[in-house]
């Protein structure tokens, strides 16, 4: 779970805000029209589970491996091969079901969803149809402060288990395609939301929260670029006040949270414009593709009625039976989830901005928790993590778990500054050393002789030396150029190699200068 | 048609023994050829081979040569094999067994036993086409679990047997490659879909063979060819490596020339398999312990066992010779000490349509993988859907297409409830019916098929007539129960009569009882020999 690729939701959202601004100014008219409509948005998310082996065979799955190197008779769908369920898949599904506040089905089953496509080796996908493992849940979301903030609850219709398909590799000439079955049989959870979202940012934040959730639970790396988390959006618009839904359109190819938000904003404008111009009949049930380059959606395929997948119970797998005890054991082993963490941090007195930043990435939140566990100052710990440490991580493209600095040493650093053993400036310097090379705060202070000089007689000596060494400046000072006091302070600090306690230094310098007058 | 019993509903079976046996037994006197070796009861070839190997009376190489010789001699007439192993490959394995004997090493229970394997069971060293053009030249990269177990037990796989394409048929005429003849009369079908496996055992081209049974595909050909066919309980034998037809009904079964052989054979392939989650973890009893010699049996060896005759299997549409043979079998069981009663099974006739809906539905899904992308001839076309269409049009035979279409229809939106769901409800009724009947009885008996083997081409263009022939067997698959078919009589036909089989149905996982009853039945059946004339003088 390399956090270098972990686009923090906040960063993405800022981007989306800027991008949104320009077309909006151009489309003043649309902006006016938008006020009369509301969008109804639902999201279907596929989460690839990070189990050691695939859902129904013992092949491992590694993203980016050479094509067709992680396959066997089962995931290739060879004649005579049979699926055997990896029990970890159920465990992951139950974890996610519980985290989404769902009702769990103690008795469920697998079904076959049938369609032909070259990346689907058996001609059917093992999925769940009428009895999904989890139903009727919800997810809590805190909208980013820069978008007005606010808390939302979005319904989750269902969570079901299924297997992934392979991938088609299209050749340059386009004359033929190749099939890579490495991904075939990798376990997925499909999470279907209620049509509860109304704006692009709500939808993007719903998806980001799902990503946080699966990462907190450790069931998926949730990486959108690698396709470990895939979102398909269903969207329709209706005039405000209207009860019935408008015609819904599906949008695919959304590879980041910001594209979720932008695609929805684009689609809302498109549909509202058509509707307001009396061309509502041109909004048809179809699948549209988000084009990142052109920043627009285009028709991918029109849906001619409902496709018939001819679902029927998978006869090769026995029914899935889980017990209350099994569910309770999993419930008791769940980690603190993002929503719980946010409420706890909020109670600790952190601002919502800080809360959202710290809870966005589980490894950051864990680092923060470990830092304050030893009694470090909460606000200072938050500031260090969100400031210098976050900047360093961004520059070095590292995750917080990859740096050498430990939460214990960050705590030590904070208390060393607070206890005036070292200055804040020196604290910053050794922070970078700690992140890059490791070591302890105490060790570094000793090794580099960085302990702050708080002995007044030592500082006095240095002040005296500076005043003696700079007779010209002293004369000017005495003749009224009092601003030169700063110059002297700087020279003394230099003399002390930055270690002099600044407060004490200024105090003594003032006394000495006053005495010269 | 029912010459003896005009209305089976008023049949009183307990009184059967009062009817003179000669009158009941409608078979002609067995021909001299068969009669000449009829003095001996069926003996276990597996045990005979083992005994003579261990006693040094013969070698595995000699045994293999004797079977291979008969196979080569009869195969041009029978065409029971789609692939025969080279002599070299077979003899090399036999030599290895002789070496082991020489060294005094432990021998597997099937050491030196030549086994034929139905072509829908995967073998890594031989093609596995399931009788279909779409899998022509296909060689699986792995052995089916049962094949792996056979090899571990010392068996020598001699070849792959002919079958109706993907198991869909009752005559083996549905093979994309060749038509297999019945060893009792070369102008007749061997039954199907495991017709090649049944014919091969009947003609002693091998010792035992593996078949598969989705709706009767082991039992009906066993009846047609005069051999013993055992359909185990669903889950007793792993299906891993069995090319799926209808997953919830498919079982791998055993064919042999004696009950003991099928029992020893079943022992070797039974058990839970981590690669098949529908395989059962039920303990496997020692099936072989009960194959005692007839000399050691008491006068009423089956005393106290209750046998139910399924009334509906003796009604209209069943040949009179079949009915009388069944009655003869019932009276024979009564002579052995069983109590015979009649059992009525109201849902019996519903099983056939339910079976065809469920089997077709599952097959339409199981056969979707043969899409021309990875198997068979990929027909070169511009678009994806014509690639699928053309590859499947050319790769599948007519019967397979028919069932895929029926199954696709039955699972379609708007029809699912009326067909698939109804059929599942019928399946539950059938299961309940069997449960009630088996609570009252130790086993149930019925014919294995409504007729003896019919002529090649006779029902080829009448699928409904062919489907109707499955009436005796499909209910057992719907209920997942074990059933044993063994010869019990003859009807006129061919040069020496055509065999008729009785089907014994037991409770789930009670193969042990079926094998015990079957063995006693077979060992005490007088004056009937089931060696076909084709090889009678050479065996």
TrEMBL record, chain A:
Sequence segments annotated as region (Disordered): 1-21
InterPro entries, alphabetized: Asn/Gln-tRNA_amidoTrfase_suB/E (IPR017959), Asn/Gln-tRNA_Trfase_suB/E_cat (IPR006075), Asn/Gln_amidotransferase (IPR018027), Asn/Gln_tRNA_amidoTrase-B-like (IPR003789), GatB (IPR004413), GatB_C_1 (IPR042114), GatB_Yqey_C_2 (IPR023168), Gln-tRNA_amidoTrfase_suB_CS (IPR017958)
UniProt EC number: 6.3.5.-
NCBIfam families listed in its UniProt record: gatB (TIGR00133), PRK05477.1-2 (NF004012), PRK05477.1-4 (NF004014)
UniProt function note: Allows the formation of correctly charged Asn-tRNA(Asn) or Gln-tRNA(Gln) through the transamidation of misacylated Asp-tRNA(Asn) or Glu-tRNA(Gln) in organisms which lack either or both of asparaginyl-tRNA or glutaminyl-tRNA synthetases. The reaction takes place in the presence of glutamine and ATP through an activated phospho-Asp-tRNA(Asn) or phospho-Glu-tRNA(Gln).
UniProt feature, compositional bias: Low complexity: 1-18
Organism: Oldenlandia corymbosa var. corymbosa
Entry protein name: Glutamyl-tRNA(Gln) amidotransferase subunit B, chloroplastic/mitochondrial
GO BP term (any one): glutaminyl-tRNAGln biosynthesis via transamidation
GO molecular function: ATP binding; glutaminyl-tRNA synthase (glutamine-hydrolyzing) activity
UniProt subunit comment: Heterotrimer of A, B and C subunits. Subunit of the heterotrimeric GatCAB amidotransferase (AdT) complex, composed of A, B and C subunits.
Automatic annotation (TrEMBL), chain B:
Gene3D superfamilies with a match to the protein in the record: Amidase signature (AS) domain (3.90.1300.10)
Origin species: Oldenlandia corymbosa var. corymbosa
Descriptive protein name: Glutamyl-tRNA(Gln) amidotransferase subunit A, chloroplastic/mitochondrial
UniProt keywords, alphabetically: ATP-binding, Chloroplast, Ligase, Mitochondrion, Nucleotide-binding, Plastid, Protein biosynthesis
EC number(s) on file: 6.3.5.7
Residues annotated as domain Amidase: 64-515
Major localization listed first in the record, in broad terms: mitochondrion
Catalytic activity: L-glutamyl-tRNA(Gln) + L-glutamine + ATP + H2O = L-glutaminyl-tRNA(Gln) + L-glutamate + ADP + phosphate + H(+)
Oligomer status and interactors: Subunit of the heterotrimeric GatCAB amidotransferase (AdT) complex, composed of A, B and C subunits.
InterPro entries: Amidase (IPR000120), Amidase_CS (IPR020556), Amidase_dom (IPR023631), AS_sf (IPR036928), GatA (IPR004412)
Family according to the record: Belongs to the amidase family. GatA subfamily.
Superkingdom, natural source: Eukaryota
GO molecular function annotation: ATP binding; glutaminyl-tRNA synthase (glutamine-hydrolyzing) activity; hydrolase activity, acting on carbon-nitrogen (but not peptide) bonds, in linear amides
Family annotation (NCBIfam families): gatA
Physiological role: Allows the formation of correctly charged Gln-tRNA(Gln) through the transamidation of misacylated Glu-tRNA(Gln) in chloroplasts and mitochondria. The reaction takes place in the presence of glutamine and ATP through an activated gamma-phospho-Glu-tRNA(Gln).
GO biological process terms held by the UniProt record: glutaminyl-tRNAGln biosynthesis via transamidation; mitochondrial translation
Active-site residues per Swiss-Prot or TrEMBL entry: 118 (charge relay system), 193 (charge relay system), 217 (acyl-ester intermediate)
